[in-house]
Design goal:
Elements: E1 5-12, H1 19-31, E2 36-43, H2 50-60, E3 64-69, H3 75-85, E4 90-93, H4 104-114, E5 118-126, H5 131-147, E6 156-163, H6 164-172, H7 180-187, E7 191-198, H8 210-224, H9 227-256, H10 264-297, E8 304-308, H11 315-324
Parallel strand pairs: 1-2, 1-4, 2-3, 5-7
Antiparallel strand pairs: 3-8, 4-6, 5-6
Magnesium ion (MG) binds near residues 95, 97, 99, 201 and 206.
Amino acid sequence: MSHAFISVIVPMYNEEEVIGTTFKRLKEVMDSTGDRYELIFVNDGSKDRSADMIRELSRKHKEIVLIDFSRNFGHQIAITAGMDYAQGDAIIIIDADLQDPPEIMLDMIAKWREGYEVVYGKRIKRKGETWFKKTTAMLFYRTLRALTSVDIPSDTGDFRLIDRKVCDVLKGLKEKNRFVRGLISWIGFKQTSVEFVREERYAGVTKYPLKRMLKFALDAITSFSYKPLRIASYIGFTISFVSFIYLLIVLYQRLFTESTTAGWASIVAINLLFNGIILILLGVIGEYIGRIYDETKNRPLYIVREAVGQQLDSEHHARKSEDER
Ligand code: UDP
Ligand code: MG
């Protein structure tokens, strides 16, 4: 079995309660593989000591790389940055809070050795997550499946292994409002899954409050589907058609019968209803236009304050000399 170089990407945002333990667990598991590896911690603008703790550890442990963002850019961007810096033959993305059990990485690496280029973790059970989170997640994946044609497997998060080839393609996709797991499905390649039980958060609280979850869901849908726009036009057509029929009825009553349709209240009610519908549909269009605007501004995806790590620059050189040995 030839030796590989494996990159593990850990996005972190205010994870000081867990990050020390996470490092230990990751190191234990990766040491047991016998492969060479790097642990890339992307500090997504944490306001706590997460980055300092990793910087401290990186003095002793040469496999640590720290990418320190200038501010919070978001989970999906943090993962993307990790990929930009990753030098491995295989790249694993894992959450910092130990909800994704590090031991599963071994199964992923085994599948990769069998020739799979994407190995995603499939949650067969979620422990210690609220009823609300589970329900919204379920609804989200259903909606996504109904609205998009990309086959995004359900019950998968960003916990997955990707081959170097996949990572290189992904690095070429520069879209701003990223939904990484969707992009990975879209890219294709030989994909498979390993099952795992999603653990409770080891410590700390979720960094995905409702507002972020909504943004995440909207990014996912708008990145992969025009259907909301099409639905908007369908609704428009339907309402126009029904209104036209109603107009004919009212006119008929007025001209050919004794009674006329009266009512100030009904006009106001109908007006409010239709104005509401129009505003929602404008909002849908706005979501897309806003994203087009984001793309055209051409700002960088993220800004790095500093990148720390003993293997960071010398890596290619080091690998070469090892191959020659
Ligand atoms: N995270 C991040 N930036 C953010 C929010 C979250 O890098 O703006 C990281 C976080 O530190 C964790 C991962 O993304 O490693 C998943 O977040 P979390 O566990 O809070 O989400 P949940 O598991 O509750 O969905
Ligand atoms: Mg979590």
